[in-house]
Specification:
mainly alpha, 13 helices, 78% helix, TetR/AcrR family transcriptional regulator C-terminal domain-containing protein, Homeodomain-like_sf, transcription, DNA-binding, HTH-type_TetR-like_transc_reg
Length: 232
């Protein structure tokens, strides 16, 4: 691709592809230039430095989210759709949660999502500081879970649950050590044995945890609304 044909949109889309494949540490202007058949200096000219490129990539990623029609579906359905949409986005772009938590990655795309969240919980009846906390609580749960499941340790757990025989010696040693520590505590040991009997993969367990968390958060927020109306 000739340098003069490059534009910011092309560079950002190529950066997202590189980020999805190699993560933040694998992104460099040199690699991006090679991918686009251009010089690294052209990347800097169009998008500035790496940090600015990450903000642009995050903004583009957030634009993928399809927002619910809050008046049409109601606040609880809308809130559930937003939580699942955010989780799917973070699963699709595993680097995104690191941008959110460690970079100044605020953008129009993220603001668009948050505006819909505010509309959702304002429709439910939350006001003032309670509205801020109602918006923040589900989002913190989603990003926290996404951070935990995007780590190398989570990848080791996933491989162990799918095919223990395929583990490397180092991974097997890590898993064995974790089991040995948990075995000293009866409740942890019982939980581990129950999970093993169910034969679920790590990702299946995470899916169940997420569904439980979404339901519990929404139940709690709804109960708080009810408690407020009862006290009036």
């Amino acid at each position: 691709m000739a340098r003069e044909t490059l534009n910011r949109e092309q560079i950002v889309r190529a950066a997202i592809e590189l980020l999805d494949a190699e993560g933040i540490d694998g992104l460099s202007m040199r690699k991006l230039g090679q991918k686009l058949g251009s010089a690294a200096t052209a990347m800097y000219w169009h998008v500035g430095n790496k940090e600015n490129l990450l903000v642009l990539a995050a903004d583009e990623a957030w634009s993928e989210v399809r927002l619910p029609d809050v008046p049409a579906v109601g606040w609880r359905t809308a809130a559930r759709e937003l939580m699942y949409a955010a989780r799917e986005l973070c699963d699709r772009h595993r680097w995104l949660v690191r941008v959110i938590t460690t970079y100044v990655g605020y953008s129009d795309g993220m603001a668009r999502f948050q505006e819909c969240a505010y509309e959702t919980f304002e429709t439910a009846g939350f006001r003032d500081a309670d509205l801020d906390w109602a918006v923040s609580t589900p989002f913190m749960f989603v990003t926290g879970l996404a951070f935990m499941t995007s780590t190398e340790a989570a990848e080791v757990k996933e491989r162990a649950s799918r095919n223990p025989a395929a583990q490397s010696e180092e991974e097997a040693a890590v898993v064995a050590q974790a089991h040995a520590i948990a075995a000293k505590y009866p409740r942890l040991a019982a939980s581990g044995e129950a999970q093993a009997r169910r034969g679920e993969s790590f990702s299946e367990q995470v899916d169940e945890v997420f569904a439980f968390g979404v339901q519990t958060i929404l139940d709690g927020l709804e109960a708080r609304l009810g408690a407020r109306s009862d006290s009036v």
